[in-house]
Amino acid sequence: MKDTALVIVDMLYDFIDGSLACQGADEAVAKTLEFIQKHPDVPRIFVRDHHPANHCSFAAQGGPWPPHCVQGTHGAEIHKDLEPYADDEGLIFYKGENPAQEQYSGYEGLNEAGQTMGEVLRLMEIEKVLVCGIATEFCVRNTAEDILKDGFKVTVLKDCLAWVDAQGHVKAIEEMKHEGIRVS
To answer: What is the 3-state secondary structure (H, E, C) of 31-49?
Structure first.
């Protein structure tokens, strides 16, 4: 799987057991860890929601969500079981840092060097991207769609997902399949 990378979207505490805890999150983390351990040669790219305290998506600013993944808080941290695998800052992409802009797609995020995920995937000569994470209907879907639009082959790992709403999860999976994203 030399030409393949794994993108892990928002496996952060606020989405696992915090202010926006999602259904299936513990199992998604466990299955993702299992995948990583079975495929140690597949590069791991992490996406982190990373909001300032006054982010536009928060209810206090008129947005739809409670405060979550605020910079410098435990809720914004990668789950402890996955954190050891987030060992390359160049492969961690931060999104939602602009207080005036909603950003569901991790593909819009930047690493510490200011690079986009697309730039890094091309430097790594990646052709196929496996996507997992939280939440299926929002950040996972938007990230997978943007990766596909940029010309990569995309597979969503169904066992490694968590979701806000079960019906929304099923609908998002079906719509992603229709768009050309593999689901396995």
So the answer is: HHHHHHHHCCCCCEEEEEE
CB 109 within 8 A of CB 117: yes
Strands 128-134 vs 92-95: parallel, antiparallel or unpaired = unpaired
Nearest Cα residue to 23 out of 168, 180, 164: 164
Dihedral angle sign, alpha carbons of residues 180, 86, 82, 47: negative
Q: Which helix (H) or strand (E) holds 4?
A: strand 4-9
Whole-angstrom Cα distance, residue 1 to residue 70? 35
What gap in Å lies between CA 106 and CA 132, rounded to an integer? 12
How confident is the model over 54-80, as pLDDT tens digits? 999 999 999 999 999 999 999 999 999
Rounded to 5 degrees, what angle do the CA atoms 64, 27, 142 make?
A: 40
Low-confidence ranges of the chain (pLDDT < 70): none
- CA 16 to chain centroid, in Å, comes to 13
The catalytic residue positions are 10, 95, 139
Q: What is the greatest pairwise CA distance in the chain? A: 45
Contact predicate 58/65, CB 8 Å: yes
Find out whether 66 and 73 touch, Cβ atoms under 8 Å: no
Residue 151 neighbours by CB distance under 10 Å: 10
Taking the model in full, what pTM does it have?
0.97
Residue whose structure tokens are 């160049």: 90
What stretches of the chain adopt beta strand conformation (E)?
4-9, 44-49, 92-95, 128-134, 153-162, 182-183
